[in-house]
Amino acid sequence: TMTKIPFGTRLVSSSSDIISVSSFNLLAPLYVRPIDQRTGEIQPFAAFEWVKDDDLLRNETRLPRLLTCLENCNTDFICVQELQLERGSEEEEESLLGNSIQKRQPFVLPSWIKPLLSKYRIILPSQQQLDKIAERNRRVLLADVAVTNGIFFKTNKWIPKSCNKLSDGDDDHTNTCITQAFRSVDSDDASIVISSIHLDASREEKRCAQIQRCLGQTASFSSHQPYALPLIIAGD
């Protein structure tokens, strides 16, 4: 059975018979009233015209409150959307055939959300996928950041299981769809598939394709199982 829990409820059960999932669209700081370089204007969906107190949108106000919500929910899995990742702190310069080139550092979690790692680990797309996301943001919003989905999971209860790839060269995860099978720390077999999804806002066919991808990956995770693994989809 599934139960909807009121917002703000702290879940404290450690029973392996109960699986708790929460989902948060974090609103990437990059998407708060940015100037689109293609138009020179703020896109309407990012203007937040109904927010009269601008302080509510400031990172210094918003992100600590978000962290408190994430920590207090205490669920087995926390699905996040619009998680804005940053480059590592240092950049290296290498010389190649007499030319100086810059090597970009990998994307890492921002410092404001790192306290969650005391209890959780996170599933993210590959660095190759994140670089593709960042390329678009550099071009359109002049910001070298990656905005993506992710799945935080409690390390004392869950372990991620590997997946058979859908096709050669197909990445397991994208920035708008993270689907992962997990097994209990007390079991060798996967028991649940969790998907953190950010559905396309413009086209229904894209939304359907995203859901189909989740189902296809769940089937791949289930290929060595005598039954199809249950799938929980959470997101925005």
Structure report:
This protein is of the alpha+beta class and 236 residues long. 20% of the residues lie in helices and 28% in strands. It contains three helices and eleven strands, in the order E-H-E-E-E-E-E-H-E-E-E-E-H-E. The chain has helices at 59-73, 127-141, 204-221; strands spanning 21-25, 77-87, 92-96, 99-103, 107-108, 120-123, 146-154, 158-161, 177-184, 190-197, 231-235. The strands form three sheets. Strands 1, 2, 5, 6 and 7 form a five-stranded mixed β-sheet that branches. Strands 8-9-10-11 form a four-stranded mixed β-sheet. Strand 1 (21-25), helix 1 (59-73) and strand 2 (77-87) form a beta-alpha-beta unit. It is globular, with a radius of gyration of 19 Å. The two termini are 22 Å apart.
Question: Can I get a quick summary?
Answer:
Helix content is 20%, strand content 28%. Strands 1, 2, 5, 6 and 7 form a 5-stranded mixed β-sheet that branches. Strands 8-9-10-11 form a 4-stranded mixed β-sheet.
Number of strands: 11
DSSP strand (E) fraction? 25-35%
- Number of distinct helices: 3
The helix/strand class is alpha+beta
Topology:
Blueprint: E1 21-25, H1 59-73, E2 77-87, E3 92-96, E4 99-103, E5 107-108, E6 120-123, H2 127-141, E7 146-154, E8 158-161, E9 177-184, E10 190-197, H3 204-221, E11 231-235
